[in-house]
Amino acid sequence: MTVKTAISLENSLFEKVEDLARELKISRSHLFTLAVQQFIESYENQRLLEKINAVYADGPDPEAVTWRQRTRGQHRQLVEGQW
Q1: Structure confidence by residue, pLDDT tens digits, 12-34
Q2: What does pTM read for this prediction?
Q3: How many whole angstroms separate alpha carbon 30 and alpha carbon 20?
Q4: What burial letters (b/e) apply to 26-56, b meaning 16+ CB within 10 Å?
Q5: CA 67, CA 83: separation in Å to the nearest integer?
Q6: Nearest Cα to 32, choosing from 5, 52, 67, 59?
Q7: Could you report the per-residue pLDDT of 61-79, keeping only the tens digit for each?
């Protein structure tokens, strides 16, 4: 299902849209659809990145650091004589 909508653009932007749609051999509607889809995807990716950064902003969990150090020591003992 599609929905019609009306938007207002400055003449200079409208002319650029017209030129690009003509160059790409697509309708203005399709060009706007592509642009909005790309904008939404970019926005959602940025929000996800911000959430990931917020989770790791405080650095590693002290428990995870301890576990990693213990695991490295155990790994070293396992492979020490193999090389």
Answers
A1: 999 999 999 999 999 999 999 99
A2: 0.65
A3: 11
A4: eeeeebeeeeeeeeeeeeeeeeeeeeeeeee
A5: 25
A6: 5
A7: 888 888 888 888 788 777 7
